Amino acid sequence: QRRVRVPMLLSSLLALLVTVLGYSDFGKVEGQDKVDVSEIISTNLVPSVFLIILLVQFMKMIIDRIIYLKMSMIAKYIYQVILVVSLHVYLFFFFSRTLR
Questions:
Q1: Which one of 1, 8, 38, 86 has the minimum C-beta count within 10 Å?
Q2: Residue-wise DSSP of 62-86
Q3: pLDDT, tens only, 20-34
Q4: What's the rounded Cα separation, in Å, for the pair 9 and 68?
């Protein structure tokens, strides 16, 4: 049995790091051309989308860790299915509305 906990944790941390450091590269934020993370922090005006993205990624890491500590493969499977379905629902319904 191969342990994949450390690589999965590192990939989650890498995704969180890319989101924090590369947020300005994901597109325009509320009419501004380019937003730097240091500008967001220094002005004390954190965009709600940025905050939601960080909170969701952090909560995913915590839930994944709880499931790992319980050693429940069924819970892990259900969690992965919920993540995939929710991502597809977001992409097909909500994200497509913002592009119109």
A1: 1
A2: HHHHHHHHHT-HHHHHHHHHHHHHH
A3: 777 666 555 555 555
A4: 11
**By CB neighbour count within 10 A (0-12 exposed, 13-18 middle, 19+ buried), where does 82 fall?**
exposed
pTM of the predicted structure, to 2 decimals: 0.67
The two structure tokens encoding residue 65: 């860790």
Cα dihedral value 84, 67, 57, 83, nearest 10 = 10
29: region left, alpha or beta (phi > 0 left; psi from -120 to 50 alpha) = beta
Amino acid 58 reads: F
Backbone angles phi, psi at 35, to 5 degrees: -120, 130
Q: In this predicted model, what pLDDT tens digit does every residue of 31-54 receive, in sequence order? A: 555 566 677 667 766 677 778 888
